[in-house]
Amino acid sequence: MSYAVKEIFLTLQGEGVHAGRRAVFVRFTGCNLWSGLERDRPSAVCQFCDTDFVGMDGEGGGRFSSAADLAAAAARTWGSDRESRFVVLTGGEPMLQVDAALIDALHAEGFFIAIESNGTLAVPRTIDWICISPKAGSETVQRSGDELKLVWPQERSDWQNMQGWNFANLLLQPMDSRGDDAASKANLEQAISFVQTHPKWRLSLQTHKILGLA
């Protein structure tokens, strides 16, 4: 199969347990929780996405005809040093496109593979690090992994039930209100209060935005 990719870029992982780690991001186009072709059209489920996943016009983006071609592009973005190679598959929703061939090709290039998924599609355990970010109103079928990252606040989010899922790390991330500083501050304060009250959870910040990184 071919792969439609919005962008491929080198940065630092900004969120979650691996925050601060050098990483190649492969951002796939498309999302199954977004109802429109344009990002400013409303979604039936997800109302707070802060990522442009439409089209293939980003840095390093395009259509890749094979898993080997896409893995090679990720390797070129990382550079010739194979030590500690780390790739993050994200979107949109990467599991609309990620398959066994791509996982094998990235492993062959020496990558430790992480994925950031909404959890509505099953994620193979051959991926080294599974991060699931559930969206209220959708059915989360992937209820195990390494990291559950819940954006907060979300109305109708069943966080109590999530505590019983099989994740090694439970993270709460304050919602970015996209330019509304007062709302973003209020979300941060709510997230801090939640973690103080529910110690199974840890606070996750979008440090790449604080640092001005992609």
Question: What does this entry look like structurally?
Answer:
By secondary structure, the chain is an alpha/beta fold. The chain has helices at residues 67-78, 100-108, 159-162, 181-197, 207-211, and strands at 3-12, 22-28, 62-64, 86-90, 112-117, 129-132, 144-145, 147-152, 166-167, 170-174, 201-203. Strands 3-1-2-4-5-6-8-10-11 form a nine-stranded mixed beta sheet. A two-stranded parallel ribbon has the order 7-9. β10, α4 and β11 form a beta-alpha-beta unit. α1 packs parallel to α2. The chain is globular.
Structure at a glance:
The protein contains five helices and eleven strands, in the order βββαβαββββαββαβα.
CATH architecture: Alpha-Beta Barrel
Cα distance, first to last residue?
28 Å
Strand order of the largest sheet: 3-1-2-4-5-6-8-10-11
The total count of strands amounts to 11
- Classified by CATH, the class is Alpha Beta
Q: Fill in the CATH topology.
A: TIM Barrel
CATH superfamily: Aldolase class I
Mean pLDDT: 91
Shape: globular
Helix content: 10-25%
Order of helical and strand elements = EEEHEHEEEEHEEHEH
* Count of DSSP-assigned helices: 5
Task: Tally the structural domains.
Answer: 1
User: What percent strand?
Assistant: 15-25%
